[in-house]
Known about the structure:
This is DDIAS protein. One of its GO terms (biological process) is negative regulation of intrinsic apoptotic signaling pathway in response to DNA damage. With 130 residues, the protein is α+β, with helices and mostly antiparallel strands. The protein contains three helices and eight strands. The strands form two sheets. Strands 1, 2, 6, 7 and 8 form a five-stranded antiparallel sheet that branches. The longest helix is centred in the last third of the chain and has 15 residues, at 87-101.
Amino acid sequence: MSSVRRLLAASVISVQNSCFIYPACQNCFSRLLLDSRRFNCLKCGCTGEAKDASYRYRLSLKTADTNDLFEITVFGSCLDPFFGVTAGDLRRCIRDFNQLSGETNNDASPGILVQAVETCFIGKRFIFGV
Length: 130
């Protein structure tokens, strides 16, 4: 894999999924496996209590420049300004909203959040570091 970093100016065509946050290992940023009490990182072996798991943004986008289509995934705290809160705080808001609305899947993003993300990103042009 090349270590050359390039900039890509592209417009967002669509948001690829509605799951914007994930439980992330604090050591290697890989997705954690969670059960009701514990978390485990399959990549580096880190373990801990589920309540102490940290969360990270992951936004998958379909983009286009003047010539090609690209699937780009944006990770981490660079998305904090767009969401207005950290990924951990957003997860708490989603969990609280879902509990109030009776949603059984505590990690499901409310439809209004998905619409807000689509409004914020689709049709807008960004410069991505790839």
